[in-house]
Every structure is written in C-alpha cells, then in structure tokens.
Design brief:
358 residues, two-stranded antiparallel ribbon, alpha/beta
Length: 358
Amino acid sequence: MDAGHSDVPAHSHSQADEGAPKDNTGEQQDCSQCCIKVAEIHRLLEENRKLKEELSRKSLDENFMKDDSMVKYYTGLPSFALLMGVLTQILPSLPKSTTGRKLSHFQMLLLTLMRMRLNLPLDHLAHLFDISRQHTSTVFCDNINVLYAHLSPLVHWPERHCMQDSMPHQFVEMFDNRVRVIIDCFELFIERAQNLRAKAQTYSNYKGRQYSTRNHLFYFQRGGGGGGGGGSDKQIAEESGFLQKLSPGDMVLADRGFDIKESVAFMGTTLKTPAFTKGRSQLDSKDVEETRKIAHVRIHVERVIGLMRSKYNILNDTIRLNMVLPCEGEGMTLLDKIVVVSCALTIMSPSIVVKPSF
C-alpha cells in the first residue's frame, strides 16, 4: 500500500458531513425577524384603532354624542335618542353641504343646536367643525329654517277639550277648568340701531337701552316680529293675534301690566290679574287670597320662560340687527324662528309642572 494515499474512500468525508447536525441559525433569525414584524403590525393596528377612536371623539359626530349627559350639555335635549329623533324628522329637508368641507347631516344639526344652546360665536364653531365662517353662518340659518318648518306645529293652541284633559290639578283646584292661557312677555336686547327711526322704535325708557320684546304664552307663540322697546304689554298682546284664539267662557291669567280687560271681555272671556294697591293702604282679605291664587299658578309660565332661556343661551345675548330683519319673502325674522324652535325644543323636555301621585 502506498503510504501517500489514504485507505478511506473519497466520499466518506461527505457522508460524515451529511450525518452531522445542520446549523439553523439563519432560519431562526428569519423566524425572529418575522415575529418582530408581526408584533409591529399588531402594535400599529392597535395604535391606528386608538387614533381613530380619538379622532371620532373630536370629530363631533354621532360617536361623540352618544352619552346623554353630553347631548344635554351641547344641545339642551334630554337624550341621544331624542336628538336622533329630531334628526330623522328634519332629514328630508336638510340641505346638502356643497361648500368647503362637507358636513354630515348630524353635524349640521349639532352645529345649529350648539349655537343656540351655548351661544358660541360663529368663528368658534367654524374652528370646531373645520369650515369657513361664512359656511358656518349659512349652515346655521338654513337649519333654523328647516327646524322651524318641522317643529313649529308643536307650539300650537290646543282645542278646549284637549286643554281640559291635560289641565294640571293646581289650575283645576283654584279656577275650575276655565283657565285657557297664561300670558307673559320676555325681553331680548338687540344691538343699538344707527337709523334714528329704528332706534326710536326699539328704545325703552324703562330699560334705558335697545330691546325687542317677545310674548311667550303658555301654549301659544306668535310670529311676525317682536314688539319694539316702546311697545306696551297691552299693545303686544292685542297685535299678536292671541285674542282671536280665545273662546267665550275662557279665563286668561296675566300680570298687572296687561291692561287688556276690555279687549278680553269683547271676546266673551275673563281676565284675571293680581289686585292693585294703588289708592289703598292695603288689600282686603278677598283680594289677597285672589292674588295669591293667581301668583301660585302664574309662576309656571315664568318658569317655562326661564327654562327655555337657560337651555338656549342665544336668547340671553345681545341680538344682532340682521337677526331682526324679515327673512326674504316672509314676515318672520330669523329671531322669530329661533324663539319658536327654542319653544318647541323646550316642550320636548320633561314638564315643569309636577303631576300628583295617587
């Protein structure tokens, strides 16, 4: 045998190599990289989900308003279900948003109610909804018109039998079932007019500044422009069309300022007001009792007015002059419509008159 040659076959080394364990380091590294990538994908998906939720909460859409407490704060309505009910009612009449950023119909309604409820400036709302100020103003005016068209029937004068069926027990106990209406007024201050004639019509010596008066009745709301500052309660009542709603035998409760006894009597109805002490040192016992009874039930209309104005703060601010101008082709002003819509939305809230429990 040649000492320079090995007796081991040439292929024996390769067979030995095949029997040795393989090095899987590369595959393990690939697997680890794959797991890292999958984990990163899941992290990004979760982060994306959270960001979408956060964006939804800030986009002022349905998801933002599903909590009833938020609905009450931003719109004055008691629940999300009622808010969506209003939206469903007006949906067919809502205009399409074609200018700038498109708002959903829900956002159009929400913008309008937020302006009424919180009296937010147009510039503020424009920033919140990411639209122009002009677009914000257009959306608000358009939606007030739609809300007025659909909700104004809620503010109506009911038939006598309907009134008697729903008459609060306090009224029945004190005045049988003859009370048909409680009449009262509230005042809205407006900007100082530059035109001398307009300034004279809207100035009140009593209040010492510009104001517009609105009469709000327990079941009746007129339109066609508010009375100017110089108008008396009597003048407003007689010009509002309210007297024509009365029927013989009705009783009207009012404050002392409503000197409409003769006008009401002409309709075959009775006016009840607190007794005057003018010319007398004090009221007799009969007048005191009568005044107490009237005051006890008259307070309800003041509470309704207070509730409405606390719900819709736009009625507590100084009103811009362009809101008291008649709408094009109409006798109504934008302010008239805002007041009627505020009344209708307030009616949707629980009654302020506590019903007796038997």
